[in-house]
Amino acid sequence: MIYTVTLNPALDKTATVENLRLDSVNRISELRVDPGGKGINVSKVVRELGAKTVAIALLGGHTGTMLRNMLAELGIECKVLEVEGETRTNLKIKDPALKTNTDINEPGPEVTDEQLRGMLDGLVGEVGGGDIVVLSGSLPRGAAADTYKVWVAALKKTGAKVYLDADGDKLVRGIEAKPDLIKPNEIELGAMMGRTLDADEKIVEAARELIDGGLDRVMVSMGGAGALYVARDVTIKANPVKVPVGSTVGAGDSVVAALAYAQDKGLGLEDTMRLAMATGAANVMQSGTQAAPRELVDSLIDKVVVTRL
Q1: Domain ranges, ordered by start, for the chain
Q2: 297 near 275, Cβ under 8 Å?
Q3: Which residues are known catalytic residues?
Q4: Mean pLDDT score, 209-222
Q5: CA–CA gap between residue 8 and residue 245 (Å, rounded)
Q6: Fold classified for 2-308
Q7: In the structure, how many helices (H) and strands (E) does the chain have?
Q8: Among 308, 278, 271, 273, which Cα is nearest to 295's?
């Protein structure tokens, strides 16, 4: 089973606005609403790929109820920690005329360490060997900086595989507990390493430093430049598939979903990379943060070029 954890979920509103102007009235021509947050995005894609998934989420208020109902309509089981306050609503403004994407994100409700500990204890009691747990996204207000470190350590003791997709201090602290896989982009990895990573060789070198420090696998997404997968005994470059762009929001989440799906199904490494890149490309073609249909993903797999470095 693939579990996802979203500690700061959101209702994602994706609005299309032609020629967005500050200090002026702007009118929306199209509006799409999706259940969101990085872990929930992963669950949506895993479900569309054809695997079972459980979304663990911290939800509150009317918006939280809406989000839970939307997941149920998608056929995704959701286990909820209910908190006071209102789950955030994030507005994503797409301007096709100016070719810009603007995100306006709410902060979300505040939580206590005791609430998060109870949530973690419940998940630890449920998962075990053979399960995959994806921890991703921002932390809610009130959460300690080492929250992901604590969660990774506790979940690894169950025998589950733990993937971490975060940035900044959340990623730095989380790595201390040695998750089975991390997926930064090249900018996030460079910020963590304290240097600019503007070439494949520099990215691989940085990823290998983390491998030498005890990590198993590092998947570095590079947007239009593809992705690099680095493990102790192998490095693979996967080139991107050129597709028309609908929305880039959640593209990285779809790659994580494909990696989790591939491990759950026991796919080989090169097939895993082809699936990951095809899934990312297919999801970029969608509007909002909806998951691309599996048949679209399959139509792109053979277009992915994978090279062992």
Answers
A1: 2-308
A2: yes
A3: 253
A4: 93
A5: 26
A6: UDP-N-acetylmuramoyl-L-alanine:D-glutamate ligase (3.40.1190)
A7: 10, 14
A8: 278
3-class SS letters over 197-227: CCCHHHHHHHHHHHHHCCCCEEEEECHHHCE
Pairwise CA distance, residues 158 & 147, whole Å: 17
CA distance 170 to 185: 14
> pLDDT (tens digit, 9 = 90+) per residue, 65-107?
999 999 999 999 999 888 888 999 999 898 989 988 898 999 8
The pTM assigned to this predicted structure is: 0.92
pLDDT, tens digit, for every residue of 222-269? 888 899 999 999 999 999 888 887 777 778 899 999 999 999 999 999
The pLDDT of residue 284 is: 85
3-state secondary structure of 181: strand
Q: Under 8 Å CB-to-CB from 20, ≥6 apart: which residues?
A: 26, 93, 95, 98, 100, 102
- Lowest mean pLDDT across 184-193, 284-293, 298-307: 284-293
The residue whose two tokens read 């609430």 is 115
Strand 227-231 versus strand 234-238 pairing type: antiparallel
E-strand ranges in 29-177 read: 30-36, 53-59, 77-82, 88-95, 100-104, 132-136, 161-165
